[in-house]
Amino acid sequence: MTTLVHGTDTLTRDALTVLQPGFVGTTAPDWLLRRIGEGLSSVGLFGRNIVSPEQLTALTAQLRAERDDVLVAIDEEGGDVTRLEVKQGSSFPGNYALGSVDDVELTRAVARELGRRLAACGVDLNWAPSADVNSNAENPVIGVRSFGPDPDLVARHTVAYVDGLQGVGVAACTKHFPGHGDTNVDSHDALPRIDVDLATLHARELVPFRAAVAAGTKAVMSAHILLSALDPHRPATLSPQILTGLLRQELGFEGLIVTDGMEMQAVAATYGIERGSVLAIAAGADAICVGGGLCDEDTVLQLRDALVTAVRTGELPEERLADAAARVRALAAWTQAHRARGAESVSGAAVQEGTAPGADIGLVAARRALKVTRGERPYTPMSSAPYVASFTPVANFAVGDETPWGIAAELERLLPGTETGSYADSSVDALLAAAGERRIVAVVRDVHRHAWMTEALDALVAARPDTVVVEMGLNEAEPRGALHIATHGAARVCGRAAAEAVAGTGA
Question: pTM to 2 decimals?
Answer without folding.
Answer: 0.92
